[in-house]
Amino acid sequence: MRLFWHQRDLRTRDNVSLTAAARGDEVVPVYVYDTDLLATVGPRQRAFFLEGVRRLQERYRELGSDLVVRAGSPERELVAAAEEYGAEELYYNEHYRRRRRDRQDSVERALGKANVETTSLTDLVLVGPGKLESSYPNHSQFHNDWERVPKQMPVEPPEPDRLADVAADETVPVPDVDIELPEAGYEAARERFDRFCGEGIYTYNDTRDDLPRAAEAPTQAVSRMSPYLAAGMIGIRELWGEASEIHDAVHGNEARNVDKYRYELSWREQNYHLLYYNPELPRENYVSFPNEIEWRDDEAAFEAWKRGETGYPLVDAGMRQLEREGYVHNRPRQVVASFLTKHLLVDWRKGARHFTKKLVDHDYASNYGNWQWTASTGTDSVDVRIFDPVSQMAKYDDGAAFVTEYVPELRDVPADRIVEWPTLSRDEREELAPEYPHPIVDRNEGYERAQRTFERALGKR
Ligand SMILES: Cc1cc2nc3c(=O)[nH]c(=O)nc-3n(C[C@H](O)[C@H](O)[C@H](O)COP(=O)(O)OP(=O)(O)OC[C@H]3O[C@@H](n4cnc5c(N)ncnc54)[C@H](O)[C@@H]3O)c2cc1C
Q1: Ligand 1 centre from 386 Cα, in Å?
Q2: Which atom number of ligand 1 is nearest to the Cα of residue 196?
Q3: In degrees to the nearest 10, what's the CA dihedral of 13, 162, 160, 17?
Q4: Do 320 and 350 share a structural domain?
Q5: Whether pLDDT at 149 is above 90
């Protein structure tokens, strides 16, 4: 008998270590409800994840087995489960966050003492970080190497008769949250991906930044797969394999569009790679600066940013999307992060922690990796990149459809005035939308202050 330890891989399909375990023997699937670990994610993601555990348990029951749920520390509970089911081996998928790696190490030690063998395999990413160099100066060099490594295709699900005929009497509690969550589980993930492959993937490169489209019909612009990937409710090989099949069946512009989707997945891979080799990524600047970055301690500005009341319409729409949906489209995600760390000069760690609390798709590697990239403390090849929130809106939402979806105070204001809002006179703003805030920082002063601050940190001034 073998145990399979489910962590952030809440699925039976395309699950590398589960399938490997079931090839050699009967398998008892186990999930350990570990409140210490769950406390490190935000309440919305926790609820989504736990609902995913329940869906997984239902799936095992359909297959004539069950998901054994234990509460407590994984090392103790897995040793006890191995003893109870007479298991001689434990399989699990490797995870890269330091806390998870430490936990995996202590599980291995505890099981070793109990004479239970452990096997862990790469599942979370298409290319295991160990197959690549330990560091790359930027994404394109990472991508060049990563692209060359052959990708594994989706693995077959385990044969149902390899899943042990067990019955679990425990499940997990699913707390209520303040927003409507996406439907959890593999079926919902699959349905969403099918919809995207039917309507969005063929134009992905051309329309991914089309914010009005993203607000109106999300999966026509982007896939919205991030919550499912973050919880492991669908396997990365399944997405890659399907996108590759579609890619090989089309030509010209369509092929270029589909390929861009595969390319975007490589950013996720790079973030795991970064985390693997730099466990301090969530805490310390990736780049070493000769001088300290002089972050500003401006609590009022930070609070206004969190509430979506900065007087910068695209920033506020992004922050209100976060509050309402636990998700932000990638374009405004970059704009809000840049605004906080550049125009307001608030430390990226504060913004990243707020995202951790609010996102349903929070991914330890991608959240911190992207915050660092946007704050110019990470792997961006440009020394100081500052997104201008006004020109970003002019380029991606000039009709203000995205902004007015999330900022109702501006619904009666002509679109060109919304785009120019931070540069209008105070009187004009009062007249157009007295309920909507004035900008909390001057657009040019904020930009120039950020430029000077980063140049000082880089030793260029
Ligand atoms: C400040 C900041 C914080 C972020 N935090 C997270 C996070 O916690 N979790 C998360 O999954 N993504 C994060 N991202 C990356 C990106 O914004 C989301 O992956 C994307 O918006 C998810 O929407 P989607 O699934 O519709 O993406 P699509 O456009 O459909 O892209 C497909 C998939 O590619 C991957 N991907 C695309 N862009 C990136 C990227 N820049 N970095 C990593 N993966 C990428 C994701 O897995 C995504 O689901 C962050 C970006 C920024 C700028």
Answers
A1: 19
A2: 30
A3: 0
A4: yes
A5: yes
